[in-house]
Write a structure and sequence with these properties.
The chain is an alpha/beta fold and about 475 residues long. About 50% of the residues lie in helices and about 10% in strands. The two termini are about 50 Å apart. The structure holds adenosine-5'-diphosphate and magnesium ion.
Length: about 475
């Protein structure tokens, strides 16, 4: 195969593993010259390019070349005749400190160097894919996240001690898992720019795995991940049911863990509750520290709102802030959505931010997101969870399991339908209004006192959203 075709394939890989800006600046100008056996010769515009590639992207180049040409691939640089002022034209990070004082800029140099070995240079290679806006600074601490936040901080501050490995952050939607996992990566990168930190969502990981399997490049895929110093995988629950990707993930996990590299995972469930992931992998998730992010309490919600407003340079009346904190309880992303929407109304529609407007916006954003269910749907769904026939709910049977299922169905009907209590009673078990009130109390009490029961009901409730 000819050189340029091979190089195009390398470029495609590089492009998907780095930012567009880096790609455009450092890789696009390169031309392929020749290919002999597994040695690809490329021409770079200047000596500076060569040095910069060597220092910063050697691993990425290696991964690309290995992927396209297989093991033992070699790269040779040819440096085009450089002019002294070339340097000044290139706008690259750290441009004020060019590293080319060792070379004669006028000469044409052909370097025959295998870039995969560079002695004594700290490598900044793979684009970390971190979101720079998610930092510890703007991650407000509260009792709901204190353990996870402190654990993350400890890891970032003492990368070489590897205190808990992996750090497993779990919790419901919009409670800050992605933010916190990113913050750890951003902090490590800030303190140790030379570390290879990679953030990847499990969705992307498994897609990459799938295409590596199709393209027969599974080894390169593994190699790529195994060269990380810090691997952050978001939403690992998406590994459920994907056997091949699990195997690869297991292998990567073992390699990195053995080499004392840092692993940070997030998930919407605790390790014990994840289903359809092989036990051997699940048990490894428990090796380190599992820290839960819970819903913030009222006081923390107020502080989060104030911090967001402050960051946006906005102000809002106290009563509006408290109103939002009171009414949006379980999802910080929703709180942000409401603030954004309020600010937009004020800015573009020139409306005054007051309680009326806040109420209007919350009704639109939060309440409308709640799906509307009928009592019948809820009955069907609950019966499935209790593993009983739905018709049993309408009988007079007093078997414990049936009674409990009926009570939970009433509780969810109250929560998710607009039906008055009489109607709920009539449609679920043909009971009267007082029985419904009693049932609601039973379920609420149990939810408060029995953690297992609460989890179970939460699970039924979550299932409703997926109907
Ligand atoms: P998850 O990944 O758990 O669904 P995210 O990390 O995406 O949640 O968080 C949702 C939004 O809420 C993000 O914009 C994040 O910045 C914000 N957020 C979450 N927790 C906090 C916190 N403790 N302080 C400030 N903002 C937070
Ligand atoms: Mg997330």
């Amino acid at each position: 195969m000819e050189a340029s075709k091979i190089w195009d394939e390398c470029l495609a890989f590089i492009r998907s593993n780095t930012s567009e800006e880096v790609y455009e600046t450092w890789f696009k100008p390169i031309k392929a010259i020749s290919l002999q056996d597994k040695t690809l010769k490329i021409e770079v515009p200047t000596q500076l390019y060569y040095e910069w590639l060597e220092t910063h992207f050697v691993d990425l180049l290696r991964a690309a070349l290995t992927k396209v040409l297989g093991r033992n691939a070699k790269l040779i640089y040819a440096v085009r005749m450089s002019k002294t002022d070339d340097q000044a034209k290139i706008n690259y990070p750290g441009a004020s400190k060019p590293k080319i004082n060792t070379v004669n800029p006028k000469s044409r140099i052909i370097k025959d160097i295998n870039p995969f070995v560079i002695p004594g240079v700290e490598k900044v290679t793979i684009d970390s894919n971190l979101n720079p806006n998610y930092t510890f600074d703007n991650f407000i601490e509260g009792p709901n996240n204190k353990l996870a936040r402190n654990a993350g901080m400890a890891i970032a501050k003492r990368v070489n001690e590897v205190a808990f490995n992996p750090l497993f952050i779990f919790g419901g939607v919009g409670l800050g898992k992605t933010h916190l996992a990113n913050a750890v990566g951003v902090e490590i990168k800030r303190l140790h720019p030379g570390k290879n930190v990679l953030y990847v969502s499990m969705e992307k990981f498994s897609q990459q795995y799938a295409s590596a399997t199709i393209n027969n490049t599974r080894n390169d895929f593994l190699q790529f991940y195994q060269m990380m110093d810090v691997l952050i995988v978001d939403d690992v629950q998406f590994l459920a049911g994907k056997e091949g990707a699990q195997k690869a993930f297991f292998q990567i996990f073992n390699h990195l863990h053995q080499n004392k590299k840092i692993l940070i995972f997030t998930s919407d469930k605790a390790p014990v509750e994840i289903k359809d992931i092989k036990g051997r992998l699940l048990s490894r998730f428990k090796w380190g520290l599992a820290a839960e992010l819970k819903a913030p309490n009222y006081e923390t919600r107020v502080r989060i709102i104030k911090a967001k407003l402050f960051a946006d340079g906005m102000e809002m009346p106290e009563d509006v802030i408290h109103y939002i904190a009171q009414n949006v309880r379980s999802n910080i992303r929703e709180i942000e959505g409401i603030l954004t929407s309020l600010i937009a109304q004020a800015t573009y529609m020139h409306r005054e931010i007051n309680l009326d407007l806040a109420q209007e916006v919350i009704d639109k954003i939060v309440r409308h997101q709640k799906p509307h269910f009928s009592c019948e749907m809820i009955k069907q769904h609950v019966a499935k969870f209790f593993n009983i026939d739905v018709s049993l709910l309408d009988t007079k049977r007093r078997k414990r399991q049936i009674v409990m299922a009926r009570q939970v169905a009433m509780y969810l009907a109250k929560k998710f339908t607009k039906a008055p209590l009489e109607q709920i009673g009539r449609e679920i078990g043909n009971k009267d209004h007082a029985t419904v009130i009693y049932s609601l109390k039973v379920v609420n009490d149990l939810m408060d006192t029995d953690k297992k029961f609460r989890k179970f009901v939460d699970e039924i409730e979550n299932g409703l959203y997926n109907l």
